[in-house]
Amino acid sequence: MLATWNEIKGRISSSLPKNSFSLWIDPISFLGKDEKNLVLSCPNRFARNWVMENYLGLIRDNLHKAGAGHLDVVFEVHPPKRKSSGSHNTPDPAQLTLPNLQPRQGRANLFFNRDFTFDRFIVGRSNEFAYSASRALAHTDQWDYHSLLMLANTGLGKTHLSQAVGQAILEENPQSRVYYITAEQFTNEMISSIKKNRIEAFKDKYRRSCDVLLLDEIHFLSGKQKTQIELGYTLDALTNENKKIIFTSALPPKDLPNMSKELSSRLTSGLVTTIESPNYETRVKILIKKASEHNLKLPGEIIHLLATRLNRDVRQMESALNYLKAKSQFLKARIDLDLAKDVINSLVSGESSITTKDISKLVCSYYKVDPEMLRSKSRKKVYSYPRNIYSYLCRNHTIETLEKIAGSINRSHSTVLYASELVGHKIKTDRDLRNQIDFLSQRLENMKR
Length: 449
Prior knowledge:
Layout: H1 2-13, H2 18-25, E1 29-33, E2 37-42, H3 45-54, H4 56-65, E3 72-77, H5 128-139, E4 148-151, H6 158-172, E5 178-182, H7 183-195, H8 199-208, E6 212-216, H9 225-240, E7 244-249, H10 261-267, E8 271-274, H11 280-293, H12 300-309, H13 314-331, H14 337-347, H15 356-367, H16 371-375, H17 381-397, H18 402-408, H19 413-426, H20 431-448
Parallel strand pairs: 2-3, 4-7, 4-8, 5-6, 6-7
Antiparallel strand pairs: 1-2
Helix pairs in contact: 1-4, 5-6, 7-8, 8-9, 11-12, 11-13, 12-14, 13-14, 15-17, 17-19, 18-19
């Protein structure tokens, strides 16, 4: 029967995405059989429940094809043996904590958003694997991958899932040392530790006093060579101790400029997932959920209209619902199709009247550069700065794809994405840049009128 089970796994592997198979089906092993049951082993309770809920039908179908359809499938939980860590002594989990030790801290520098939990995350085809992998990491003691890297554009839920993992772990074990931090904050903390002669305390915090590391926005490590080296050592230390690590990024590490090959390899050595823009069915579910949270009772025709026209990301849908609610309250107007269309036109339709050529002309005039220099290979700041502004404005004021924006300045789509993310991040702290963006955005808005 062992050979039959291996044959069934082989069939299933050809019908599932590689990541899904390796995460859920491959760890299942054959335990035995009797006249009525096929007994299979799962590494933990969460994996068993997930497989029974999502893959039991598939297993039974293949069991039937193998001529063993009369057997029922029974799952038992058998955690895998922990790998030996060489000469290091593994502490006894039942050992009492020494009375002179400091109490363990559950959180690091950033507070979690209480709304970013698994039960508030809307699952669809575009994010199902990232969701299931995140839940598996959060609810299992034994994680068979070095890390989890989630790749997604802004507003698609990667930070939501990352924080959901941290909150789920702390809910089950409040004593877990969970550190959620952005790449920029990690860099600033390291620099501050060096200046204050506290680098050893910094290393101890992230290498030896950390159970779970949630590192957000790693695309901002681009060009920060010293931080990349320090992070590499930190990841090696955590991996050697079988700690849980999650990264999020807007771009694959290989597409990040000035990212070392060594760190890029570490970041992608575990499980890599992507989150795409939600399809229509998922957008409907998101809108229904968000509308309920806003105490908005929207008829099906309005939900359909919003789901059809609002197809960028979750934040766009949230903005529309906020706008719809505010307009209804302040104008004391009933929410109907006409009001919904007004809101959509304010958020979407007006964008189409602005072209990449309009933005190019405005940016080049404002920064006094030749339009051809936006397309040049030059990396001088006098040209790269307005080129980044151009990328940001195109992404926020047109409906053009990344590929078309990139083609207009002779760049790759990943370069445009990185540039716009960088500008969007810097305007939070750089007042001069924010004023420039506000001024240029207002000029673009005036073009629509």
